[in-house]
Amino acid sequence: MTINEQLNLFDNESDTAMYKHKITLEKIKNELIDFGLTKSQAKVFIYLGKYGAKTATEVSKALQLPRTETYHLVNSSQSLGLVAAELSHPTKYTAMDMKTAITTLVKQEQERIDTLATKEDSISELWKEIPFFAVETDESKSEKMQLLHGSGPITNKIKDMINSSTESFRIFGSVADILRMYHSDIFDWTAESSSELKMVISPLTSTPEFLSEFNKNGIKTLSTDSEKKCFIINDSNEVLIFMRNANHPTRQIFAWWSDSEALVDMMSSLFELSWEKGDALY
Q: Which structural domains are found in the chain, ordered by start?
């Protein structure tokens, strides 16, 4: 197979027979990025995994990457345990089996988390040793906002919102948004909360099976032509607005959190208007 034929797997047009593979590869690439790989590392891993042992020069030409960058990519992938170098001249590189690679990445991430967890108490104690120098003023009590990038920080923020909720927890989003929250255990946390859960799902063309697990009186649907709107309101205290929602890979989503009274009121009004206009789930 020539390099040009190999390139077709990554760059073919929609009217070619190979296009379906390109779509699948994009999904795999995005999943690998979610595991912490860069876009180029993911492409190198996929290329080696599907085309077998290649030299850095062959990888560079096939993926149209600078040669120096390619050497860095194969070496960094080797350090991650995803790529192995053959004892040959010139050196050829092979990708590990996909299942082995994912297991390796998961173990590395778990080890990193475990290491951080062991430092939690010691860092907190060190922090307490340093005096607090800020003077309490009205300015320090001003409304706040926070930009959150990636599913991890966003999920943690949602968990904090649920834990502090005392009255109502309102969610507006598409089926994809609700499904992603479902798989992130968010609804396990809302089930343990005393707050009333209300959801507006928009749009809803068909009813997914998982929605049968919820109280139907707490769900309404709204017909729209957009799946880009998603926000969460906790009581009348705070709001989380997704600037990129479940239409994007988990590492690419980001959201804007704020406790601004004006913003919370505005989004609450939007939710209640949508709730009034919405249809019952069943």
A: 3-99 (1.10.10.10), 143-280 (3.30.870.10)
Asked whether the beta carbons of 23 and 11 are under 8 A apart, the reply is: no
Q: What is the largest CA-CA distance in the chain?
A: 71
Q: Crossing angle of helices 67-79/39-51, nearest 10°? A: 80
Measured in residues, the chain has a length of: 282
Collapsed DSSP state (helix, strand, coil) of residue 250: coil
Q: Cα angle vertex 282, ends 265, 180, to 5°?
A: 60
Mean pLDDT over residues 72-100, rounded? 91
Greater model confidence, 6 or 206: 206
pLDDT digits 0-9 by tens, 266-275: 999 999 999 9
Q: What is the mean pLDDT of residues 174-181?
A: 88
Phi, psi of 268 (to 5 degrees): -65, -40
**When comparing pLDDT for 192 and 136, which is higher?**
192
Q: Which helix (H) or strand (E) holds 118?
A: helix 98-129
